[in-house]
Amino acid sequence: MSEETDLLESNVMAVMKMNNWVKLILIAGITVSVTAVSIAEEWGTVMYARPNTLVREKRSMNSRIKGHLGKKQAVKADYLKDGWYAVFSLMEKDRNESKALGYVYKTRLYADTPKSIAATPDRENKRENGSKVSNQNLNIDVKNISFNLNKDGNESILIEFNRFYTPAISSIEGKEPRIVLDIENVSSFKEEWSVIKVEGEFIKQIRSSMDYKARKARIVLDLEPSKDYIFKPLFGVRENIYSLQISEYEKKQETQ
Question: What whole-number distance in Å separates Cα of residue 54 and Cα of residue 203?
Answer without folding.
Answer: 32
